[in-house]
Automatic annotation (TrEMBL), chain A:
Gene3D superfamilies membership: 3.40.50.970
Pfam families xrefs: E1_dh (PF00676)
Name of the protein: Acetoin dehydrogenase TPP-dependent subunit alpha
Cofactor(s) needed by this chain: thiamine diphosphate
Occurrences of domain Dehydrogenase E1 component (ranges): 34-332
SUPFAM superfamilies in UniProt: Thiamin diphosphate-binding fold (THDP-binding)
UniProtKB/TrEMBL annotation, chain B:
SUPFAM superfamilies xref list: Thiamin diphosphate-binding fold (THDP-binding), TK C-terminal domain-like
Organism, scientific name: Nitratireductor pacificus pht-3B
Protein name: TPP-dependent acetoin dehydrogenase subunit beta
Residues annotated as domain Transketolase-like pyrimidine-binding: 12-187
Necessary cofactors: thiamine diphosphate
Keyword field contains Secreted: no
Keyword Transcription regulation: no
A GO term for molecular function: oxidoreductase activity
This protein's UniProt keywords: Oxidoreductase, Thiamine pyrophosphate
Amino acid sequence: MSATARKSASKTEGANQPFIYRQFDQDKLRDALRKMYLIRQFEEGAEESYMRGLIHGTMHLSIGQEASAVGICLGLSDEDQITSTHRGHGHCIAKGADVSRMFAEFFGKTTGYCRGRGGSMHIADVSTGNLGANGIVGGGLPIAVGAALTAKKMKTGNVVVCFFGDGANNEGAFHEALNMAAIWKLPVVFVCENNGYGMSTSVARATAVPNIADRAAAYAMPGVIVNGNVVSDVAEAMHEASERARRGDGPTLIECKTYRYRGHSKSDRNRYRSKEEIEEWMTERDPIEAFEAELVEFGVIDAAGIEAIRADVAREIAAGIEFAKESPMPDVANLEKYVYTEQA
Amino acid sequence: MDAQVETATRELSYAQAIQEAMAIAMERDERVFLMGEDIGVYGGAFQVTGDLVERFGPERVMDTPISELGGAGIAVGAAVTGMRPVFEFQFSDFATLAMEQIVNQAAKMRYMLGGAVSVPVVMRFPAGSGTGAAAQHSQSLEAWLGHVPGLKVIQPATPHDAKGLLLAAIEDPDPVMIFEHKLLYKMKGAVPEGYYTVPIGKADVRREGRDLTIVATSIMVHKALEAAETLSGEGIDIEVIDLRTIRPMDRQTVIESVRKTSRLMCVYEGVKTLGIGAEVSAMIAESEAFDYLDAPIVRLGGAETPIPYNPELEKATVPQVDGIVRAARDLVTGAR
């Protein structure tokens, strides 16, 4: 895995360390690793709770894609906003949400971020700048552009990140949103997490261009392809894109090439991809393993430090599930609450 | 009924009244801005925004590309993050291109997020037939949106209400859809100067009567009033209720009226089946007013067809004054 790190380092002109080691202090980098563990263990905990019948409905797990969520959000503040996707647990955590309230939402409890009304597919912590996961493929794209329009009109200096998957790039909303963001030079960064498949349909079968980022040219914005499993590469592309956005130079399309280990959702029989392919990504290109090895190599953390993070995250996850279990259910009498804003 | 004391009034067209409301809203609140196709220098397909771009500049009277889905979604995103966008559809038919953002996003966002956000977006829809624009530029789709919890749907029938309801809509914290009948744009009426609002969710009794309640929407309010005038010469006394808002519906005003008149007719331009008349009829059938009914409820709605091009066919597609007169007379005299 150190090969990955060296490869990243050598790409950086005039510096001997990858971007994030020059940009962020060591606490921030250790926290990035912690967030990656938090995402993975959260999703493993959610999956287990689902298997045990504690969570109903469905969920879309992003295990294997943690570097993209964390790398993108590393340099963002709570005032910077994101729109997220149906595979959005990682974005929510990377942006700073509390896993207890996320578990509570999955359990349908009043203490959940959406008070039990949204569940996995609409998870959001608005207080940390997350405008919401979305059940509609491509649904968040225009909304992110609208948020960026607000940022421009109000001169907030904030940037909006629009996460979407490879499937969304064939929705009309993608094209309309990118076009308008470009003509109005809005401070938005489009982040395509290309995990190779829209449900069962591969990108090669669904998309006319080899890379999603190629489509940036049609909207006169930079299109950047990064290894979505390498935190520093993702963070560096995001840094450039957000600087450009904050300067008023308009949007960027970043394509993070990544992979999801789990199926599309709980109904997936994984018949469209081989065991070997999944195995190869899990064993050869795991983003957490790669990041750990890199952190050790650059002296940011040691084995004991990593173990301490894992154990600490495991405790946080267990406490979160416990909190969710013990939290109260919504009162059916309040079924219609939140349909409209309560007015005095 | 209105929130503010009205000052001097003068005659304005329905379109001018809407334009004035948008201008007042933009003067009062810097978060308010307009978006839509050709609403800038062109002035809007129906000249509703007119010269507002000269007064407020292209940042606040924003021309969008022909991208209804994206444009509506951008308005939603701007609303959620603190702005007060007013999004103009060139024709209400084009709502079909933006249904995803209207129905899945705008209407549900507050609920899905457990009340963490509000979506104060206004969408304006020039609607209705009578302009020879045929099937894709003449529909009345208000009942579609009226079926969606989370949205508010209004249909002002007069210049006075168009201005007051639009100002109320812009101040409303939730998404409000306004259906403006294209044939009303040139209609003139008394409009108070300055700021005032007309409450969303409140019907208006336009004409009091004893023999029959006609619940009408939009342009049909005027046709119903004309029919009522004709029938008053025959000694038939009709009450005309302008529903004004179809979601949330003012049930109480309709129920009280039917308890008084014992007869109900619904007149609306949208396709008759599964439309506003079905809802009003069922609402009365479920209410205490049911016991007061002396005759079956009658619905006059749009024909079960796309809007045709030929003017005679087009006219025959939607209720006209003659038809309302006949149906109302039959209902009151027991001929049906």
